[in-house]
């Protein structure tokens, strides 16, 4: 008799996203989502083993026959509901102290992002508060944010440092991220973003040299000793921050210690950073509101994933990134919330809704972008982003007759998502009140 963690049965839909082991979808393929639909009275079942991996996805009758003698720690009757893979948030800045609610009023009055920055707000405001915060304070706030993400259906999230800028505070932030890996049931891809802004009292060139000669050697030392886990390197490549040459030097230093390139490019001004990132073999480039046709072509050829952040363009009233052009050119498009003090959004369902309305993505494309393609942007598509045998048993169960209600019901995810499941364990259940 075999023993397993979880059996889900009687589901109306099981949204696999992909079913043949695809690790990224591009172009027209993003329009087509693999779905199992109930057959008359026969629903769909999912089995998650004791190792947290999916063992079977199929129709109830076949699963019941195969697992007739099996036992399960938990059984979920998903009659009338839909099962989807856990969502993946491809870009967040979740470790910080000191909110910037006062800046929202400035932006509503017409101040631009750089005007707020130059007035002493923006990243440097958060840096000052993050410097002053203890590791325990940062951890408490960060873990609460992760739990809120989980309740919105996110089971894998990219988390950046970047509000320290000096080596000690950057390491403090990365240690907070590491600590949460052990304590919160959500998978994390950790990104060093020490070149998020130019510190007060330094030039961009001085900051570049500090990152290359002080920060990155320290990261290498801690990673080699097993005292820190870092997956990616990020730079804010922008006019008035780090130029293309400085960004390339920093990213190359990260590559040299084994970090994947996943950086901010072409957000406020066109600089040619997408072309540079493609030459470096960037795993992902975020923002891209001002990307050129040449940058799009270079990303498509290099296989770099475009991580699009609908909340940023919405809140800052920026030009929308040319997502349709990217998809048509064969660039894999992913989504992220860009959660940070400037864009306080923890909900990937809301991000998907904005992507559909403002970026003219279909609901299928938005789901692909928030699952398998977002996982690909983090190098995790072999383990996350779809409901396939052998992958992590990360799922959400939507209490609706069709999965599209997750996007359609604007701001309604707290009612629509009945269960969030991580590696076969239920980590969130919708309140009955």
Distance between the termini: 39 Å
Q: Which stretches of 5+ consecutive residues score pLDDT under 50?
A: none
Residue-averaged pLDDT: 96
Shape: globular
Strand content: 15-25%
Largest sheet: 8 strands, parallel
Task: Report the structural category.
Answer: alpha/beta
**Helix content percent band:** 25-40%
Total helical segments: 17
Q: Order the strands across the largest sheet as they lie in space.
A: 8-9-10-11-12-13-14-15
Radius of gyration: 21 Å
Q: Please report the total strand number as a whole number.
A: 18
Please state the oligomeric state of the protein chains shown: single chain
Structure characterization notes:
The chain is of the alpha/beta class. 38% of the residues lie in helices and 22% in strands. The chain has 17 helices and 18 strands. The protein has helices spanning 60-66, 101-108, 113-118, 123-132, 135-151, 167-183, 204-224, 244-256, 273-280, 293-302, 310-316, 323-329, 348-358, 363-369, 372-377, 405-408, 413-416, and strands at residues 3-11, 13-17, 34-37, 44-49, 54-59, 71-77, 82-85, 87-89, 154-160, 187-195, 232-235, 260-265, 284-287, 305-308, 333-335, 395-398, 417-422, 425-429. The strands form 3 sheets. It has an 8-stranded parallel β-sheet with strand order 8-9-10-11-12-13-14-15. Strands 3-2-7-16-17-18 form a 6-stranded mixed β-sheet. A 4-stranded mixed β-sheet has the order 5-4-1-6. Helix 7 packs parallel to helix 8, helix 9 (273-280) runs parallel beside helix 10 and helix 13 packs across helix 14. The radius of gyration is 21 Å and the shape is globular.
């Amino acid at each position: 008799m075999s023993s397993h963690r979880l059996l889900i049965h009687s589901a109306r839909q099981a949204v696999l996203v992909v079913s043949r082991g695809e690790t990224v979808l591009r172009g027209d393929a993003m329009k087509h989502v693999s779905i199992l639909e109930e057959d008359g009275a026969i629903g769909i079942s999912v089995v998650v083993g004791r190792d947290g991996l999916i063992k079977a996805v199929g129709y109830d009758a076949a699963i019941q026959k195969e697992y007739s003698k099996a036992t399960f720690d938990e059984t979920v009757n998903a009659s009338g509901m839909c099962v989807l893979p856990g969502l993946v948030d491809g870009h967040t800045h979740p470790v910080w102290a000191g909110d910037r609610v006062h800046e929202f009023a400035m932006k509503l009055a017409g101040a631009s992002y750089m005007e707020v920055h130059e007035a002493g707000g923006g990243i440097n405001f958060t840096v000052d508060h993050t410097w002053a915060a203890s590791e325990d304070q940062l951890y408490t706030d960060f873990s609460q944010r992760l739990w809120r993400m989980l309740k919105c259906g996110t089971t894998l999230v990219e988390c950046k440092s970047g509000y320290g800028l000096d080596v000690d505070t950057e390491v403090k932030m990365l240690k907070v991220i590491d600590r949460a890996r052990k304590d919160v049931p959500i998978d994390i891809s950790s990104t060093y973003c020490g070149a998020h802004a130019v510190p007060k009292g330094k030039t961009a060139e001085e900051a570049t040299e500090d990152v290359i000669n002080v920060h990155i050697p320290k990261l290498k030392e801690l990673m080699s000793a097993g005292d820190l886990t870092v997956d990616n390197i990020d730079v804010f490549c922008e006019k008035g921050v780090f130029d293309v040459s400085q960004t390339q030097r920093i990213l190359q230093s990260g590559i040299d210690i084994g970090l994947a390139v996943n950086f901010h490019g072409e957000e406020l001004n066109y600089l040619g950073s997408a072309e540079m990132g493609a030459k470096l073999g960037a795993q992902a480039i975020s923002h891209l509101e001002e990307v050129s046709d040449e940058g799009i072509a270079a990303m498509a050829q290099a296989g770099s994933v475009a991580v699009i952040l609908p909340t940023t363009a919405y809140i800052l009233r920026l030009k929308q990134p040319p997502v349709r052009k990217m998809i048509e050119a064969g660039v894999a498009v992913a989504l992220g919330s860009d959660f940070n003090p400037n864009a306080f959004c923890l909900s990937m369902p809301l991000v998907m809704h904005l992507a559909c309305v403002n970026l003219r993505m279909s609901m299928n494309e938005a789901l692909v972008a928030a699952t398998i393609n977002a996982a690909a942007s983090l190098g995790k598509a072999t383990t996350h982003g779809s409901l396939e045998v052998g992958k992590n048993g990360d799922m959400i169960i939507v209490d609706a007759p069709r999965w599209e209600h997750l996007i359609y019901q604007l701001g309604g995810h707290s009612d629509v998502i009945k269960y969030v499941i991580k590696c076969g364990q239920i980590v969130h259940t919708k309140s009955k009140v």
